[in-house]
Every structure is written in structure tokens, then in C-alpha cells.
């Protein structure tokens, strides 16, 4: 296991590689590899383990009883997922995590993380980092609510593009989602989304290729 990589992740920020190596057995580290499309965590199941992406990426989504899929986020290398459910005993998952591409996942046992130990300094650091990550996830969900609140397709796109421009500091932005994933994330029909993007391009507001967009001028949302 690459403990140097783990020391650079948000969950283990402030921990040295040798500290993480010393915690590995105590925290029940397990790794598993998944093919693209494989389900890592299924909705309705219960888990006591935090998942961390070591390589590849994981799609976090929700399926309703009518088969509609909503994408909440994409977890990349170093990101964690299912941490809220792992921290709440007997809480069924409301999300489904599946491999967005071939990936390797590290699982960390939460009851062991919260168990007292003789040398708790580094373990407490991990717990503090976990709280910060959970707060950041809450903000991400709030942003998605803002993006899906406009009634028009263009309004939702502009809200999403505005966030990416602010985060990436450039009018040239890269979305982590492909076209279908973006439609699911914004709770839109894919064909309607593609049609609106085409109109915005034709009107000279944006240019795009796949998931890279260039904002050409400011747009007034109507």
C-alpha cells in the first residue's frame, strides 16, 4: 500500500506515511479492485466502512423506485465516500457507489477509528479531518440544490458553469461529468440538455468540446 500517497489525502492530512502504516492494522485497512460499472456500495445496504479511492474514480448516485438516476458526485483518487453512513450505526445507504472506471478502493473501519487507543494523536487527527470532509460534502450538496433550483435548463447550466468558473479561476472550465452524467446531476433530460448547449453555442455564448467549456460572454438568465 502506498502510504506516501495516503499522507497527501484530505483524510490523512497532517499524518506522516509511517504514522498511517502504524494505524493500518488497527483501523482495519482493506483494499479491493473493481471493474467499470461494478457496484461498490448498493442502496439500502448498511456499511461500517469508509471508502477511499486509491485509483480511478467512483460515481455516487441515487436511484428512485421508477428507475430514474441522479448523480450526486464523482469521487476521484484520494476522495472518500459513504463516510456519513459508516458513522451512523444501522443507517441504510441512500446512495449507490459504482466504479466510474476501473478503480482500487481502500476501506477503513469506522468503529475501529472511533475506538480509544494508547496513542490517539494521529487517530484523532484523522477524525478531525473526517469532520472537515463531511462539512465540505454538505456544502457540495447545497451547491447541487442551487444548480437544480432554476426552472429553465439554461438557468441550471449557468448556475453550474458559474461555480466552475469560480472554482477553476478561468473562463475555460472542465466538468468532471460526461454529457449523461451532467444531465443526471442537473436533473435534466440528456437530449434537452444537449439541445440547449447547442443553442448557447450557436448564439455565441459558449464553446465546448466534450466536457471542456469556454464561456465567451456573460449571460442574463431569463
In short:
The chain starts with a helix and ends in a 7-residue tail after the last strand. 39% of the residues lie in helices and 24% in strands.
Shape: elongated
Can you write the helix and strand succession as a string?
Answer: HHEEEEEEHEEHHHEHHEE
Unreliable stretches: none
Q: Mind summarizing the main beta sheet?
A: 4 strands, antiparallel
Overall radius of gyration? 19 Å
- Average of pLDDT: 90
In helices, the fraction of residues equals: 25-40%
Question: How does this model look, in words?
Answer:
With 222 residues, the chain is α+β, with helices and mostly antiparallel strands. The chain is built from 8 helices and 11 strands. The strands form 3 sheets. Strands 1-8-3-6 form a 4-stranded antiparallel β-sheet. A 4-stranded antiparallel β-sheet has the order 2-7-4-5. A hairpin with a 2-residue loop joins β10 and β11. The chain is elongated, with a radius of gyration of 19 Å.
Amino acid at each position: 500500500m502506498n502510504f506516501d500517497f495516503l499522507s497527501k489525502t484530505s483524510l490523512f492530512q497532517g499524518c506522516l506515511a509511517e504514522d498511517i502504516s502504524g494505524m493500518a492494522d488497527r483501523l482495519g485497512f482493506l483494499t479491493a479492485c473493481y471493474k467499470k460499472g461494478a457496484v461498490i456500495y448498493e442502496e439500502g445496504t448498511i456499511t461500517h466502512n469508509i471508502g477511499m479511492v486509491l485509483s480511478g474514480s467512483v460515481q455516487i448516485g441515487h436511484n428512485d423506485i421508477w428507475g430514474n438516476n441522479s448523480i450526486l458526485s464523482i469521487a476521484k483518487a484520494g476522495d472518500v465516500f459513504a463516510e456519513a453512513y459508516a458513522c451512523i450505526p444501522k443507517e441504510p445507504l441512500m446512495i449507490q457507489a459504482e466504479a466510474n472506471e476501473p478503480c482500487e478502493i481502500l476501506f477503513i473501519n469506522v468503529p475501529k477509528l472511533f475506538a480509544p487507543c494508547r496513542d490517539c494523536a494521529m487517530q484523532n487527527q484523522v477524525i478531525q479531518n473526517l469532520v472537515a470532509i463531511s462539512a465540505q460534502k454538505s456544502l457540495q450538496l447545497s451547491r447541487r440544490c442551487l444548480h437544480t433550483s432554476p426552472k429553465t435548463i439554461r438557468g441550471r447550466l449557468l448556475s453550474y458553469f458559474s461555480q466552475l468558473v469560480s472554482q477553476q479561476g478561468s473562463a475555460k472550465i472542465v466538468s468532471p461529468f460526461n454529457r449523461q452524467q451532467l444531465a443526471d446531476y442537473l436533473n435534466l433530460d440528456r437530449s434537452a440538455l444537449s439541445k440547449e448547449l447547442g443553442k448557447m453555442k450557436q448564439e455565441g455564448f459558449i464553446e465546448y468540446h466534450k466536457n471542456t467549456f469556454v464561456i465567451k460572454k456573460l449571460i442574463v438568465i431569463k
